[in-house]
Amino acid sequence: MSGAALFPRDPAVVAPGAVHVPGWLTPEGQRELVEACRSWARGPVPLRHTALPGGGVMSVQTVCLGWHWQPYRYTRTADDVNGARVAPFPSWLVELGRTAVQAAYGEGGAYGQDGAEGGDVATCAGYTPDTALINFYDGSARMGMHQDKEERSAAPVVSLSIGDTCVFRFGNTETRGRPYRDVELVSGDLFVFGGPARFAYHGVPKVYPGTADPATGLSSGRLNITLRETGLPD
Ligand SMILES: O=C(O)CCC(=O)C(=O)O
Ligand SMILES: [Fe+2]
Q1: 8-state DSSP, 93
Q2: What SS3 state is found at 89?
Q3: Which UniProt keywords apply (predicted)?
Q4: Which of 20, 175, 190, 191 is 20 to 30 A (C-alpha) from 160?
Q5: Alpha-carbon dihedral of residues 41, 156, 93, 141, nearest 10 degrees?
Q6: pLDDT per residue over 184-231, tens digit each?
């Protein structure tokens, strides 16, 4: 057992608008999400290494719901994969997103869609994510520092982690470099970034292989699900 595991991991404000809620998903909730991800990974668009404009591919494997993300835009069909229309965004995942934002910001929804502090209750209730990126990391996959900025909405990003523990680097809105904070995301953890943190650079410099609890149904690797509002018309 690592020293950190001796102590409870309390919710933490990593930066204004960025909240880490350890252990938010129940073991059952994690198992259900793993099952759902397995089925989404089968199609209509398969889980794949996203091709980058420079000719390389991402080390992470991804499949999307609602809208298909490719560098650097959203479309309804996966034109860089197999041309299929992406699977719909299920309503239960909208509900999960709302509950997550509420867990992070509290009943009052501390950060509004416009980034203002002190938003009203409608902020959480009105959160309507319409795209999800499901990322699978094997032991050597990484994600470089980037902003989630293809969305035309400043609504928060909800991030759920299952499987292997990783280092999640959460930085600032100006540069890829310092200042940033490194946070360990463990299976079941929730991380929400909105308000002044919505367009902060972030990335995953390290995954710790073999740290997943097979009871989630994922014997190795890390799953990350991010929910976002694209702000695009239906
Ligand atoms: O895997 C993570 O925790 C972050 C994923 C991410 O930043 C993204 O999909 O844009
Ligand atoms: Fe991101």
Answers
A1: H
A2: coil
A3: Dioxygenase, Oxidoreductase
A4: 175
A5: 20
A6: 999 999 999 999 999 999 999 999 999 999 999 999 999 999 999 999
Take residue 159 and report the two structure tokens written for it.
């991030």
- Beta bridge partners, 48, equal 62
Query: Does pLDDT of 114 surpass 60?
Result: no
CA distance 17 to 57: 31
Structure tokens at 60: 């992470």
Question: What was the ipTM of the complex prediction?
Answer: 0.99
Would you state the pLDDT for residue 120? Answer: 44
Of 147, 161, 202, the one to substitute when testing ligand 1's pocket (max ligand atoms within 8 A of C-beta) is 202
Q: Please tell me the pTM assigned to this model.
A: 0.93
DSSP-derived secondary structure letter, 86? P
Q: Is the CB of 134 under 6 A from ligand 1?
A: no
The whole-number average pLDDT for the span 109-128 is: 59
Name the closest ligand to CA 69. 1
Six-digit token pair at 54? 């420079």
Q: How far is the CA of 148 from the centre of ligand 2 (A)?
A: 5
Nearest ligand by distance to the CA of 143: 1
What one-character-per-residue DSSP string does 28-73 give? HHHHHHHHHHHHHHHSSS--EEEEPTTS-EEEEEEEEESSEEETTE
Q: How far apart are CA 36 and CA 13, in angstroms?
A: 29
